[in-house]
Amino acid sequence: MDDQPKTPPQRLGIYVLQRAIGRGGMGSVFLAVDPTLRRHVALKVLAPELAADPDYVARFRREATSLARIRHPNLVHIYAVGEDGNRHFIAMEYLKGHTVAEILRQRGALPLPVAARILGQVLAALEKVHAAGIVHRDLKPANIMIDEDQRAILMDFGLAKPRHDHSVTTGNTLIGTPEYMAPEVAEGQDADFRSDVYALGVILFELLTGRVPFHGNSAIATLRQQVEQPTPSARSLTPTLPPQLDAVIARAMAKKPDERYPSVRAFAADLAALVPTPELTALAAGARAERGRATSAAPLAGYTGSPTTPTVPVDPNRTATVPGLAAAAAEPPTAPTMAHVSRLRRWRVATGALAAALLLVLALLVLPRVLRRRPVAVEPTPSAAVYVVHSRHHEPITGRLLTIGGAGGLVSVKAAAGVVEVPYVDVLKIELVAGR
Known about the structure:
Layout: E1 11-12, E2 15-23, E3 27-34, E4 39-46, H1 48-51, H2 54-68, E5 78-84, E6 87-93, E7 97-99, H3 100-107, H4 112-131, E8 134-135, E9 144-147, E10 152-154, E11 161-162, E12 173-174, H5 183-186, H6 193-209, H7 219-228, H8 234-237, H9 244-252, H10 264-272, H11 278-297, H12 325-330, H13 335-372, E13 386-391, E14 397-404, E15 410-415, E16 418-423, E17 427-434
Antiparallel strand pairs: 1-2, 2-3, 3-4, 4-6, 5-6, 7-9, 8-11, 9-10, 12-17, 13-14, 13-17, 14-15, 15-16
């Protein structure tokens, strides 16, 4: 008989902890048991060193309150939020499966129908989130789980924020993941719904090609690419994709927020025209209803983006007309009108010829300079701005960023005493203190 005392199970509130199943920048996730309902839950626990910071506690609780009021089959469900001593936790649905990031690492690029199905379900979930006035702000494959029923589940709202909520501020803290960060966020502006649309465009590109569109040798280099470089062609990496898909991705990832899709429904509508999954088709129907209301209020309003912008599919059984156009066409033009049109045409031809000549002169002046420029490979240079890197096992490090290596890599800072390296997984936040 064993007379040795057994170690009692560790508890948080009513929950019995079993084992750690994940770790993130704000804390750890444990598999736990709810003894009252006899079911497994995922228990997200705020890191002890952050529990003393009211800003992080408020952000952590906001994740729970943001999600608890939204129900959708493609969103992780929140059961409870609580505190046990100084330990803050969120009890949520325990999901068995793999993240999309893990699937991409194992399989590489996914077939278009599979990618469209995953993105369609994420869009459907995010449509509910945006309708509640919440911006996710950290959309990426690592935050999308494919469960045992092959559902795509949107998770991890640790950076989510009601659009007009300024109760919890981040100052100049750099938050989010550089590879999925919209240009305006990279430049220090606040994120809105269109910033989420940009990240969805990045995710679609990655699902179809197996790689992100922008990835530099440091976080600063990646953010600079987000701001400055045009969106690459997914079809150049995966030639079997339909040509229209590049235009869909380009609009989702437009540098200016006003040139992106105004909503996830509009994004889904163009994607559904290429791959009509059930989720995309349902969202597209909502987008058509939105366009119908907008058309009745302003018949000539529309998107005026670049020539590569995809056109919205038109119902072949419906004839689109512009008010007043048919009546004008029914009346024959008079002789004075024809003379006016003739003069107008001559003026337009002359103006066009002058513009073409000016463009030719400009090209002859600029082109030689452009051709003389040669891309030169350079070693990573410190960021122009000064940051403070907060981590678990180091004092705050102040200096200029050299690299942010991502999961499994190192964050390198050029400090006054020399280069300091910190494991990426130990970094809590990177705070901008001077410069941009």
